[in-house]
Amino acid sequence: xxxxxxxxxxxxxxxxxxxxxxxxxxxxxxxxxxxxxxxxxxxxxxxxxxxxxxxxxxxxxxxxxxxxxxxxxxxxxxxxxxxxxxxxxxxxxxxxxxxxxxxxxxxxxxxxxxxxxxxxxxxxxxxxxxxxxxxxxxxxxxxxxxxxxxxxxxxxxxxxxxxxxxxxxxxxxxxxxxxxxxxxxxxxxxxxxxxxxxxxxxxxxxxxxxxxxxxxxxxxxxxxxxxxxxxxxxxxxxxxxxxxxxxxxxxxxxxxxxxxxxxxxxxxxxxxxxxxxxxxxxxxxxxxxxxxxxxxxxxxxxxxxxxxxxxxxxxxxxxxxxxxxxxxxxxxxxxxxxxxxxxxxxxxxxxxxxxxxxxxxxxxxxxxxxxxxxxxxxxxxxxxxxxxxxxxxxxxxxxxxxxxxxxxxxxxxxxxxxxxxxxxxx
Length: 426
Prior knowledge:
- Helix 10 (168-175) crosses helix 11.
- Mean pLDDT is 90; it is low at 410-426.
- The strands form 3 sheets. This protein has a 6-stranded mixed sheet with strand order 1-2-3-9-6-4. A 3-stranded antiparallel sheet has the order 5-11-10. It has a two-stranded antiparallel sheet with strand order 7-8.
- It is built from 18 helices and 11 strands.
- It is an alpha+beta fold and 426 residues long.
């Protein structure tokens, strides 16, 4: 019997994700990897990945279809990603039921209705940045990319003003992949305590928000749609997690990319591309989520090269590596807002396609248009911040995003349009 080669161990801190993704692609359409001590198949070929994401033979229900579940919930730092009970980890009829309950919150009508709210939040944040640091370096991730989605998801769920930000550090650690199992478990405990407090507050004083609607469904079972207490908490958890960290990274990556590629920003300013084009190319080139754990083979799945993903084995959707697969796009490492086909997997594919995709796109388009309209001379200031990647296999952003909003008065040419530093692949 041929012995399997040792799995490739993913870097928990993702210090050079692009190089690692290239290596994964070079190992084939799917390859064995170790993600924080758990073995899985990393799938980087977009054709194969789409097939698996739409296959009834692939599940997200770890309790039913992953023999490693019991060990993982005790010892794996990412246990919350597989142990939560919501549509993210559901399969078959349970997934359809839970998705139907949540879907109305993200309908096209509801997203359109939220746009004036998003525009108002964006303007207030820009006012604050302008007042606080009219000529100095500002951390745009901290003061703009973070608070915008926090405020939006707070509005959607009815979190009282000033309380939504309390979830921030806890959500950050959900995406962190350098925590010990004990640190991750402690973070999960605190996160659930905050969710329980939110549910209690909404039960005492319900409103028209989504949290109140979900609580009512659990209590009344309207139209046969019911939520258990566990499903209620974990559905709120999913909405907060998915609606927050991913949008932060999308705005972070888009601003960074445009400030390092002046030609791309010029395409937008001169009408050759739109902010929607910027958002889609950012989602393709630098998606907010690099790898998304986990899925499981319900039965043996033959691979194109003759190998087999055996029943019960875990599958890791490696979205960032798949998005830049050379068989999918020409010059995939080049960021080009005028690219005709910007197809990507940043929001997943198939029945688990992200319900909040339209909201994230809208938030990013509004944010980018307003930011570059308010600060047309903004320039990146990497020497004044920590632009290393966040230490996460999952989250795809920078530790900070230092930007000089307006030219320094003491430098030659101050007051003239700034020329951002040219960058590779510009």
